[in-house]
Structures are given as C-alpha cells and as structure tokens.
C-alpha cells in the first residue's frame, strides 16, 4: 500500500472549539493560582523585608517634608524675632546644617523661664545662659546628660501677676529624625499590620512565581496559534519577564519619590502635616508597581501581534493618536487620582508604543511566513 503523502496544510492541527479554549483557559488559571500559592508560601519569609523596603520611599519623603518645614518654620521665627528686635538662639545656617546634614529635627515650645529654672534647674535662652555655644546643637560644650529632676516639697514663691505671651521664651527640643514618630506610618487597627504582612507575602509570591505564571499565560496564547507561530512564545517569554521587572522597578525608584513630593507639596501649602496610615500606603505602594510591570508588556505584545499577522506597522502608525488616547485612559484607571502618577505611567507607555513600532519595523516578518 502506497504511503500517503505528508499533509501540506499547516493549520490541520490548529483548530480548537470554543469549549476547548475555555478548558485551556481554566487549566491556565488553575496552574497560575497554584504557582502563586507556592510563591506566596515562599514570600512569607520575605514579608518583613518587603514592608521595610516599600516603606523606604515614604519615610524618605516624610523626612524631606519635615526638613523643609523645619527650615521654613525657623525662617518665620527669625523674622518675628527681628521684628521685635529680639535675638534668636541659632542662625539659619546652623539650623539648616543640623537639619539637612546631621538629620536632627526640632520641636519648638514656649515655656515660662521661671518655671524651667525652678523645676529643672535649666537655663533657657534669654535668661543668662553660660555661653552662646552651649545653645548650639551638637556643640562640645552642650550638656551630654539630661538634668535630674528633683521634686520639691515646697512650692516656690511666684510673683503674683498675670501671665502674658511676652513672658514666654522659645524652647527647642532636638532629636534624631529616626526617633521622631512623625517619620513613620501608623497602624490604626489591631489587624492592619497583619493584613499588610499578608499582602506583602502575596506580592512577593507573585514576583517569585512570575516566570512560571508568564509561561502558563503564554502557553494559553500558544494554544490558539498555528504550529509555525508557537515558537515565538519561547522567544518572547524571557523578554516578557524582563519588561515586567523593569516596569515594577521603574515605578518603585522613579515614580514613587516624584508622586510623594507632589502630594506632600499640598500638605505644605495647606499647612496640614501628613500622618500616613500603613494600610493605605502599603496597598498603594505594593500593587502600583504590579500595574506598571504588566503595562510595560506593550511593545512585546505589539511585536507578537505583528509576528502572527494580526496587525502591522502601517496600522500602528495610522492609529497612533487613538492608541495614545487609550494609553492615557488606561493609565487613569490603573493609577490613583493624582495627575502625576497618571502621567508617570502614560508617558513611558506612549514611548513604549513607538518603541514597539520600531521593533516591528526593524525586525519585520520574513517573506514566506505562511509557508514556513
């Protein structure tokens, strides 16, 4: 019996029914969830570290906010003292150096000098200090040990006259920025920190399992392709993982500082000190990089669609205005309400769209693609 000739139909084994596509999607989702579960179990070991790392940009921005606020507050204090022809304990350059370079922060209080001398045995500015240098933060002559408070059994004699604001003198209390409670996020409920710890584990697990998850996703895409097209999945998979990590890192190191600086500027203008809550910040800071990582797949998706013949360079160029509009709309939906974060996502994606066009132009499909 003569052997039948080989089939020249490249698409003979490529047909899948709608039900088969749904079944393949179910398998893809189940395997991806299992990979995410395994990754989350491993991510539990990194949750503490992830929370500390993600808190880094916020704490740095809070320090920058309070550093600027401290200098501005002292400038206003100097102007007020000069208007009253009164001296000040420090010069502006001393405060700037101590705040910006040595990372100390102060809180200014107004106290009655008689009470301070009687109860604490301290000299205060304007009440005959020993030397001017003893008032400068960090000076060698400054006392290293706090004064011992000894309760008195007898009430000191106080002159019987009404108190007034003019009787008060400024008292500056300095402390390292790392010890200032204003520089850290707050937890307002007993379960809040635990939930953030779990979210950090899930996100860590997603990053750890991302190579496997992306493989399953691309495998689902390949299930609907022709046999000669499936090889592109194995080529694009490493680049897909690299783009995802690049987008997440760009968000964390490039976008977060800009967004926080922009938002804290409104706090400074309105005179409202920020007091961030851990659940609000961590939810924002953990999931926004994932959105950036997924959106950075754009040039790879464009190249893939061009490879399998669905779209081409002419279509990309002809519809670029509509594509940019869609990019801005999607960026508005994936980011918070502030315009900076939306622009921080939309502008790179617009650039990546044109990068995708360049990739399709310089690496076009070979002639005879359908005959391979």
In short:
The chain is 61% helix and 4% strand.
Describe the protein's architecture and organization.
With 372 residues, the protein is mostly helical. The chain has two domains: 18-57 and 185-371, no CATH class; 64-183, no CATH class. It is 61% helix and 4% strand. The protein contains eleven helices and two strands, in the order αααβαβααααααα. The chain has helices at 18-43, 47-83, 92-101, 113-120, 192-223, 231-270, 278-295, 298-307, 313-318, 320-334, 339-362, and strands spanning 104-111, 169-176. It has a two-stranded antiparallel sheet. Helix 1 packs antiparallel against helix 5, helix 2 (47-83) packs across helix 5 and helix 2 packs parallel to helix 6 (231-270). The two termini are 30 Å apart. The relative contact order is 0.11.
List keywords for this structure.
single chain; 11 helices; 2 strands; 372 residues; disordered C terminus; mainly alpha; two-stranded antiparallel sheet; 2 domains
Q: Helix and strand succession? A: HHHEHEHHHHHHH
Q: How would you state the average pLDDT, rounded?
A: 78
When the domains are counted, the total is: 2
Taken from the alpha-carbon principal axes, the silhouette is: elongated
Helix and strand content put the structural class at: mainly alpha
Say how many strands there are: 2
Radius of gyration: 32 Å
Strand arrangement across the biggest beta sheet: 1-2
How large is the count of helical segments? 11
Helix fraction bin: 55-70%
How far apart lie the N and C ends? 30 Å
Uncertain spans = 5-14, 128-136, 140-153, 367-372
Largest sheet: 2 strands, antiparallel
